[in-house]
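Quick one: structure tokens for this chain, please?
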Amino acid sequence: MSTEATPGFATRAIHAGQPPDEATGAVVVPIYQTSTFAQAAVGKHRGYEYSRTGNPTRAALEQCIAALEGGKHGLAFGSGMAAEATIMQVLKPGDHTVAVDDLYGGTYRLFRRVLEPMGLSFSFVDGSDLKAVEKAVTERTRLVWLESPTNPLLKLVDIQAVSALAHARQAVVVVDNTFMSPYFQRPLSLGADIVVHSATKYLGGHSDLIGGTLVVNREDLFEQLAFLQNAIGGIPGPMDAWLVLRGLKTLAIRMREHDRNARQVSAFLVEHKKVERVFYPGLPNHPQRELAARQMSSFRPP
């Protein structure tokens, strides 16, 4: 339900951060395919000076994804891995991260083969077991990295419970929300500090771009991450940012259809004699069905 003061999800996807262009009245954000912006004097500009630091097309995407996740600040990147690598730059050698064991392969590769040799340490645990997560946290733990559902076994993590546990130890909670999208799950509302997406998947929706996004509420984290975004430079070009904005306009419709199809496919597979087990939290007898219903808005009746 939405009100005039609080637009619904689909309305935010179409309009958040995307007012008509002031110069022309265009109702779709233009592709500002430029590297440099003219300045009236040194340091005096209209909000943009160099596109690595900020670009109007990218800014529209960052505002839109923040609105969809219920966050204050969004940041866009050239890929999901660029977004993840930027997060990890807030850590120092010797810092420890607790991560779910059923982790996206690219994230696991980043952690083990790139960051461990640089002095960071990692523990991989069953995120669905709160006691296992608690046991893995040490005095050096600075980050707890979650996927829920996980990729590929679709295990769920109680984001609210893990966030409370992590915050009691002054650790930051990151949730990869790619599988659910902000249409079905908003981790910030459950206590997470950073939400990361591979925009290549559902946000873009058309298999024609590579991109990533972060959303945060905390001002200190935003300042750190925005500095790193500019300093490291893993940003998307304006064309890719525009393509994600285009994809977001149909996100609600596509996710509803994905949900409907998944329920039908899972119901068929459960009854198939050649299928031993179906991993799908929407099934009535799934052991984490109650958690799925509590923290996600999927699995509604047709």
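The chain is about 40% helix and 10% strand.
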